[in-house]
Every structure is written in C-alpha cells, then in structure tokens.
UniProtKB/TrEMBL annotation:
InterPro entries to which the protein is assigned, alphabetical: Mito/Outer_Membr_Metalloprot (IPR051156), Peptidase_M48 (IPR001915)
Name by which UniProt lists this protein: Zn-dependent protease
Domain Peptidase M48, residue spans: 64-252
One of the record's GO cellular component terms: membrane
Biological source species: Lysobacter dokdonensis DS-58
Cofactor note: Binds 1 zinc ion per subunit.
Pfam families named among the record's database cross-references: Peptidase_M48
Requisite cofactors: Zn(2+)
Signal peptide: 1-22
Length: 273
C-alpha cells in the first residue's frame, strides 16, 4: 500500500477507535473516558509488557517470597468478580527497588526490594492490592485512551493495531521505543489514579482477610526507607504528600476493620507469610 494510503487507513482506524470511546464510572464513582482499546488488545499489551520485564530482569529463585506473593495474589483476586478471578500470573524480580506492579491480563510483578519494607503479609498485601486496584479500576485503559489525543497517537495506535494491519505497520510504530515506553504501563499513574488505587486496594485486602492497617504500616515503612535513601521510587512521587496519604490510609483502615473482622469470621484467614 502506498505510504499516503497507508497513513489514510491508519488515520481512519484512529478516528474509528476514538469515536468508540465512552464515559464510564470507576469503582469510587469517578467519571472515566475509556474504550480506546478493546479488552483483548489491552490484555495483549499487558502480556507483552510483562514479557519485556522478564527479558530485562532476573526472576527470583527465592521460593518463600514467590509462594508468599502467589498466596496473597490468590487471596485478593478471589474477592474480584468472576470474570477477573482466573489466569493471574505472578513473578518476583531481582531488583532492590521497593516496587510492584499489576497489568491488564492478570499479571503481577513484585521487585525483591519490596521485602525490605513489607515485614508482614498484611503489609505486602497492601502494596499488591493497590496495584491490582489499578487494573480493576481500568486505569491502564484510561491512560491509553487519554494518550490518543496527544502527539504521537499515530505511533501508539500503530503498535496497538499492529496485528490488524500487519508486521510492517507495527514495526514502524514501535521504532524508537518499546510498547512499555509508549503506553506507560509501568510508569506512575496520575495522583487521582494513585489515590483511587489506595481506596480500592485497601477495601480488597480487608475483604480478603488481610488487616487494612497493614497498608498504613507498609507506606509508613516505605516513606521512612526512601527518606533514608534520599531517592523515592518514581511512582511514589505522583501521590499526594506522604503525611496526607498516611492520614487517609489510617482513616480508611479504621472504617474497614469491621470488614476485615467479617472476612476472618467467614473463614478468610490467609496464611501467606
């Protein structure tokens, strides 16, 4: 296909997808604009991003850490709607950064450095539930949809639609950067999204039988550790100031203790540590 016609075809594809975008409501009642990509395409991007991390980082051989992460992810995802419950894949990566992430398509990655600040299963559940909260709140889809209106949308959508328009179009789209860089899957969300993931994640961990006060201690440990190192994780910088965050987590934890108690009474007593 001549370049001009190929560009026209891709432009038509962009117009069609943008037209399909819709306003929906997040788990906390916030209005979102989503629909820029299909769920299948979103899952494909999540799988590709996860594969890239596997290529870039060594996977931990620490069996205890791996089992703990798998146990926590299993307990949390069992509280999700049925369509979200199956097929979750986890990996612990050797990296001193105290970090974790979750991706569409059911992928959870934890950096070994997180075990320096998460001293209990409840604390580790705090960060894992937060990351899963991003996925079920459709934050990745929301961010991609927003990016469609920004400069470089042609390249982004070329990557997303590579399978539809052939390897040539995909190759041109990703030239000069990986899908990870283009979609920002592993980059921090907005403050709005980060705060929402805190809310959703703390609710999830309490429902799963993890003490919601563990999230308070986790972020307290995290802030203390990063202050000592003098270099906070990149994703931490997108959140409201640490003092405000701790207050919000403490207030929610108090209101979620009855949810936690009910979960324990119902037999949801995860023993992951």
């Amino acid at each position: 296909m001549p370049p001009r016609l190929r560009s026209a075809a891709l432009a038509c594809a962009i117009a069609a997808i943008v037209a399909s975008c819709a306003t929906t409501t997040s788990p906390t009642g916030r209005k979102q604009v989503v629909g820029g990509v299909s769920q299948q395409e979103l899952n494909q991007l999540g799988a590709q991003a996860f594969a890239e991390v596997k290529q870039q980082k060594k996977i931990s051989t620490d069996a205890r850490q791996t089992r703990e992460v798998q146990c926590i992810v299993g307990a949390i995802t069992r509280q999700l709607p049925p369509s979200w419950q199956t097929g979750w894949e986890t990996a612990v990566f050797v990296d001193n950064e105290p970090n974790a992430f979750a991706l569409p398509g059911g992928k959870v990655g934890v950096y070994s450095g997180i075990f320096r600040v998460a001293n209990t299963q409840d604390e580790l559940a705090g960060v894992i539930a937060h990351e899963i909260g991003h996925v079920i709140s459709r934050h990745h889809e929301e961010r991609i949809t927003r990016q469609m209106g920004a400069q470089g949308a042609v390249e982004l959508l070329g990557a997303l639609l590579g399978s539809r328009y052939g390897a040539g179009a995909q190759s041109a789209a990703v030239q000069g950067g990986s899908v990870l860089a283009q979609t920002g899957f592993l980059l921090p969300g907005s403050r709005e999204q980060e705060s929402e993931a805190d809310v959703v994640g703390q609710q999830l961990m309490a429902q799963a039988g993890f003490d919601p006060r563990g999230a308070v201690q986790l972020w307290t440990n995290m802030i203390s550790a990063t202050q000592n190192s003098g270099r906070p994780p990149q994703w931490l910088s997108t959140h409201p100031n640490p003092e405000s965050r701790i207050r919000e987590l403490q207030q929610r934890a108090a209101s979620l203790v009855p949810v936690y108690d009910q979960a324990r009474a119902a037999g949801r007593r995860p023993a992951c540590g």
